[in-house]
Amino acid sequence: MNINEVYSLIESEINEVNSELQRNLDSDVEMVNEVASYVFQSGGKRLRPVFLVLSSKLAGYSGIRTAVLSGVVEYIHTATLIHDDVIDGANYRRGKESANRVFGNDITVLCGDFLYSRAFINLVKDGDPNIQMILANAAKTMSEGEVFQLIKTADFFLKYEDYEKIIYSKTAVLFSACCEIGAILGNMDIEKRNILKEFGKMVGLAFQMSDDILDYLGNPENTGKKPGTDLREGKMTLPMIILRSELNREEIKSIRDFFTSEDFTEEKLSYILSLMEQYDIKRKSEKFVDDYIFKAKDLLSEFEDNEFKESLLFLADYMVQRDR
Amino acid sequence: MNINEVYSLIESEINEVNSELQRNLDSDVEMVNEVASYVFQSGGKRLRPVFLVLSSKLAGYSGIRTAVLSGVVEYIHTATLIHDDVIDGANYRRGKESANRVFGNDITVLCGDFLYSRAFINLVKDGDPNIQMILANAAKTMSEGEVFQLIKTADFFLKYEDYEKIIYSKTAVLFSACCEIGAILGNMDIEKRNILKEFGKMVGLAFQMSDDILDYLGNPENTGKKPGTDLREGKMTLPMIILRSELNREEIKSIRDFFTSEDFTEEKLSYILSLMEQYDIKRKSEKFVDDYIFKAKDLLSEFEDNEFKESLLFLADYMVQRDR
Questions:
Q1: Paired strand residues for A92
Q2: H/E stretch holding A64
């Protein structure tokens, strides 16, 4: 199996999602549509809709609600994303100038708010209280997680559990919601629904960890990003947490101030990368990712084999692919 | 009747609202609760809950849902308010330092997002699709209105209709929603429900107009605000729009650049205030407010007389009281 086969399998559903995303940009304030179009045109892989659609297919559902609900998920995701870009002062997003840079912070914050309310309008229209609660709670968790991450900025001694809480909130909770919603659409029993929910969570955690590893240890030619953004922004992530656990007292002393002082330098990054190489941090970090993906895939053994299950298994690996 | 009598009449309901607002600040990220508490402690008159509760009482409802739904309304209102303060770079709010000044823009934006999602969680719990749609649409209108206002910044030739669209979005739509929700809670027929909805809209428009008049022409000792904030921020509001319509070509030329250039001076403000005095703008602006309040109160003639109706009539006048 390859990624194109996955997209082919659910091509009409994903096309519906893209139509849905455009269809709702109907504000009579033209600027709102312009900002939202700009953000949605920048593409992205629609990973969350893919998980939602595949889960619903695995649960035996076929219908238009996957497009509506995927639209809601993408609106929530995009709202948090553009608010984060404002907060991080990001200049680029998916290789294009970020919305905040093109339209300014003010309008971008407000368009995020617009997308939240657009999401909830469609959620109300869809009319399922269970799904409404799952997504309203996910949105709450995401905003709380971002605050938590901000508070923990520059905290070199961030606990692993707190790191996991952060990546659960920022990434895993929404993937988990997508898979659970798919199960609900297909009327799966509560046990299977919880399995899919857990599957989405595991994949989401592994996905964010993988991203955090690439930030230090990825090949810039593949990622298209300068390495060390997280160091620059004072975000403690998996590879640094593992590195910290390997270092002796002297080495810790030598780098802990990198996270509290504002002045990032390439020398500091190089020094950290050399320590990461010395202590084999890439392999050790990837072990965490592999464990989560293994657990995630194992969960699916509860389901009968078909092309949708096969696609989800493929995607679990694809999401954490290393040559990105 | 006076304002204390109104509050006494619905004292237990408003106490329930205040408990509700506190009760939901249960994030396991302590900072989120801290910011929200800070914002809610700064008080405010809970005007929106007062309208919601009185409308529900007029409609014959008595029960706990007014507290839950008032909480939702206050969360949405507060979310937009703290996002606006970030955007305007406001330093003060209700005589206290603004949240963005105390906690920073980043955390304040995220806590606004938290309040939105908290609102929607409670709205889902309440479970009425009509009310959900009214408030989701109100939130959408509010964010669109803010974008529209931003686009129209420094537009000296803003049309009156566009001004009304802005104040409808930023203020009137939520008051209108509160009154309509009250009607729904008491199972009023659609005709009466629309009357209350319209009443809330009229009062909301008049309230915002009154605020915009005070910004130029209020007594700083009563308002506690420096006059001319709207001029400083390039916002065209009612008194300026009316003044513009009175001026000759030369006078317009002499002031229109005040709105496009960044450098506000006290001299410019003084000059505008002298023109406003010369052309009797205070009285002419207040005429607009009075017309709306007259229409609003007239709408209530459809309802039988009782203390709740009397309170709403009193509040209509109270909201636009001039010695504030």
A1: A97
A2: none
**Residue corresponding to tokens 């965490």:** A288
Least CB–CB distance from A117: residue in B29, B31, B139: B139
Q: How many CB pairs under 8 A join A and B?
A: 139
Pick A87's closest partner by Cβ from B27, B109, B121: B109
Terminal C-alpha separation, chain B: 18
| Contacts with B174 from chain A: Cβ below 8 Å | none
Which residues have CB under 8 Å from A83's CB, separation 6+?
A108, A109, A112, A146, B109, B110, B113
The one-letter amino acid code at B105 reads N
**Which chain A residue is nearest to residue B35, measuring alpha carbons?**
A147
Q: What is the largest CA-CA distance in chain B?
A: 61
Are the beta carbons of A250 and A121 closer than 8 angstroms?
no
Fold type of domain B3-318: Farnesyl Diphosphate Synthase (1.10.600)
DSSP string for B251-284: HHHHHHHHHHSS---HHHHHHHHHHHHHTTHHHH
* Closest CB to A136 among B124, B146, B150: B124
A143 and chain B in contact, CB less than 8 A: yes
Q: Mapping DSSP to helix (H, G, I), strand (E, B) and coil, where does residue A23 land?
A: helix
Q: What is the sign of the dihedral through the CA atoms of B239, B243, B244 and B245?
A: positive
pLDDT tens for chain A, residues 1 to 324 = 899 999 999 999 999 999 999 888 889 899 999 998 898 876 678 999 999 999 999 999 999 999 999 999 999 999 999 999 898 888 888 778 899 999 999 999 999 999 999 999 999 999 999 999 999 999 999 999 999 999 999 999 999 999 999 999 999 999 999 999 999 999 999 999 999 999 999 999 999 999 999 999 998 877 777 888 899 889 999 999 999 999 999 999 989 888 877 788 899 999 999 999 999 999 999 999 999 999 999 999 999 999 999 999 999 999 998 765
What CA–CA distance (Å, rounded) separates B123 from B128?
8
Nearest C-alpha neighbor of B177 from the set B221, B107, B123: B123
Q: Under a CB-based contact definition with an 8 Å cutoff, are residues B213 and B242 in contact? A: no
Radius of gyration of chain B (CA): 20
B32 touches A at CB < 8 Å: yes
Reference A55, options A134, A146, A159; nearest CA is A134
Answer yes or no: do B140 and A150 touch at CB < 8 A: no
Contact (CB<8Å) A133/B124: yes
- B164: tokens are 């009304």
Q: How many CA atoms lie within 13 A of B201 on its CB side?
A: 16
Flag whether the ipTM exceeds 0.95. Answer: no
| A51: nearest Cα among A171, A166, A136, A165 | A171
Query: Given an 8 Å threshold on Cβ–Cβ distance, is A117 in contact with B133?
Result: no
Query: Quick one: which H or E segment has residue B97?
Result: strand B96-97
Q: Does B136 touch chain A (CB under 8 A)?
A: yes
Domain boundaries, chain A: 3-318
Whether chain A has a CB inside 8 Å of the CB on B130: the answer is: no
- The alpha carbon of residue A124 is apart from the nearest alpha carbon of chain B, in Å, by 6
